[in-house]
Amino acid sequence: MANCPGAGKGLFNSRFAQATRHGSHHEDNLYPIDFFPFTTVEQYNPITGERGDGLARARKSGFLPKMFFINSSTDYWTRASSLLHTDVEGKKDAGIDPNVRIYSISGRAHTDDRIGIIGRALLTALDQWVSHGLMPPKSQIPKISDNTLVTLETFRKTFPGIPGVQMPGSFYHPFRLDMGPRWHTEGIADHVPPKTGPRYVCLVPQVDEDGNEIAGICLPEIAAPLATFTGWSMRSPSFSRTLRRNAGRVWPLPVTAEERKKNGDPRKSILERYPTKADYLFQVTKSLLQLKQRRFLLDQDVTRLLMEAAQQTYWPAAEDASQVKIKEIKAQPAVVEAGDTILLSVEFAGLKDHVLMVKASVREANNMNYILNNEGNNGDQKAGDNIWSCTVEIPANVPAGQFHFDFQCLNIDLNRIYIKGTVKEGRGEPGSLTFTVK
After folding, report:
1. What stretches of 59-208 adopt beta strand conformation (E)?
2. Cβ-proximal residues to 217 (8 Å cutoff; 6+ apart), any chain
3. Residues 253, 274: Cα–Cα separation, whole Å
4. Beta strands 51-52 and 43-44: pairing type?
5. Cα–Cα distance, 296 to 309 (Å, whole number)
C-alpha cells in the first residue's frame, strides 16, 4: 500500500540514490523520481515514442502484487498524482490494472491525520482481498471523463471568491528527464544535471460552489462542511508565489448570514446550512454511515469522527438543556516533574447515565488528548460514581513551565456539558486546569 506517493516511484537502486528526494512545485525538479511510465497499464509517450507499463517488471516476473495507492489532495498539486491515472498529455483517463486500486482523499493535505483514518480501513480491505479474496472498494479518483479532474484554468474559474484567498497561478508538472544511456539499465547518470524535455501535463481535482472537492473519498468535513479545505497552500506573496510543500489550508465558512454579507463571502453560512445542531449531526451521521458501508471507515473511527463533530459549538444551548453539570475538576498533583503521573478527574452533578464522553487536551500540544472513564479503569477509583478519571503520564522530554488541560464533556444528546452556573446566552465554561512541570 503506497501512502501519498503522488505519481512518483522513489529514487532507489541507483548510484548516489537519495530515497527521500521528490519533486514539488519549484523544488527538487531535477531528481528522477517522477518518470515514465506512470500508469499501471500500458501507456504511450508521444514525445519520445516510448510505450511502457509501471508494473511491467512485476508482470514479467509472474508475481503481480495486489496494490493500493492512496493520495491526498495535496499530491495532485505538488506530486503530480493525476499522472497515475491519465495519459501524459492530460487529455484522457487511463485504465487501472485489476490488481490495483487508487484512492484520492478529497480536500486533505499530504500530512493530514485524516489520511491515516481512511488508511486503516483500506489496509483492512487489502488484507481481506489478499487473505480471503474479498474484493476491495472500487477506485475513488477524480476523472477527466466526468469533469472532476480539470486544468488549473478551469479550476480557477470554478473556485469561489473567498475573501483573502490567494489563488495558485501554477502547480507541479514534472520534467521529462534524460539521465543518460546507462540510467535505466545500470542506475548510473551520465548527464548531471540531467537534460530536460517538455513537462508532463498534470491536472487537479474540480471543486463545488464551496471550494471543496467533488470526487474521491469525501469525509464528513467535506460532505457536511464547516469550512473550505484545499490541498494547496500559497507561500507569502511578499517573497514567493509558489505552493508550499505538502501543505493545505482551511478556510472557515461564515457562521451567520450577516457575517457572510458583511465580508462579501459567496459561501452559504453555517447557520443557513444547519439551523440546529441536530441538522448538522444528521448530515455528519449520514456521511459516516455511507463511508462505513463502503468500507472506507472502521467502526471505531465512525464513533471518533461523530464525537468530534458533536463538539462543535456554533449552536447555543439553553442552561437547562442538559440534566447534568460539571461539579468539580481536579488534577492531582498539580505540580510535577517530567515523567511523573497526574490523576485527572471530573465530578458531575445530575443524572449518572447522561454523561457520554469526557476528554482532556493539553492546550500547548496538538497530540496530547486523554479520554476519561467512569468504569473503574486507568485511575478511575469506582465505576458508576459520576466521577470520570484517568491517569496522564507527563512525557520525559517536556520542558519546565506552566501548562493547561482543557476539558470537553458531552451528554447523551451530544451536547456540551458546562460547569454549573456558568451558562450564559447558550454557552458556558467547559472547564480547564493549570499544572506546572518543574
Report:
1. 67-72, 100-105, 149-150, 175-178, 195-199, 204-205
2. 103, 104, 105, 106, 118, 140, 291, 296
3. 12
4. antiparallel
5. 18
Beta bridge partners of 408: 359
- Please give the single-letter amino acid code of residue 212: N
User: What φ, ψ does residue 83 adopt, rounded to 5°?
Assistant: -65, -15
Mapping DSSP to helix (H, G, I), strand (E, B) and coil, where does residue 110 land?
Answer: coil
Residue 318 CB-density burial (10 A; 0-12 exposed, 13-18 middle, 19+ buried): exposed
Among residues 274, 265, 145, which one has the least CA distance to residue 220? 274
Per-residue pLDDT for the chain (438 aa), expressed as one digit of tens each? 999 899 998 888 899 999 889 999 989 999 999 999 999 999 999 999 999 999 999 999 999 999 999 999 999 999 999 999 999 999 999 999 999 999 999 999 998 989 999 999 999 999 999 999 999 999 999 999 999 999 999 999 999 999 999 999 999 999 999 999 999 899 999 999 999 999 999 999 999 999 999 999 999 999 999 999 999 999 988 878 889 989 999 999 999 999 999 999 999 999 999 999 999 999 999 999 999 999 999 999 999 999 999 989 898 765 555 688 999 999 999 999 999 999 999 999 988 788 999 999 999 987 789 999 999 999 999 999 999 999 999 999 999 999 999 999 998 888 889 998 786 766 778 899 999 999
Alpha carbons 428 and 213: distance in angstroms, whole number = 35
Residue 299: half-sphere exposure toward Cβ, Cα within 13 Å: 0
**What domains sit in the chain, N to C, each tagged with a CATH number?**
2-158 (no CATH), 217-310 (no CATH), 324-437 (2.60.40.1930)
Yes or no: say if 405 and 390 are a contact pair by the CB < 8 Å rule: no
Contact 437, 395 (CB under 8 A): no
Q: Is the peptide bond before 333 cis (omega within 30 degrees of 0)?
A: yes
Main-chain phi, psi angles of 61, to 5 degrees:
-70, -15
Which cell goes with 149?
A: 479532474
What pTM was estimated for this model as a whole? 0.85
User: What sign has the CA pseudo-torsion 333, 335, 340, 344?
Assistant: positive
Cα 393 to chain centroid, rounded: 28
What CA–CA distance (Å, rounded) separates 196 from 198? Answer: 7
Distance, first Cα to last Cα, the chain: 44
Residue recorded with cell 490523576 = 343
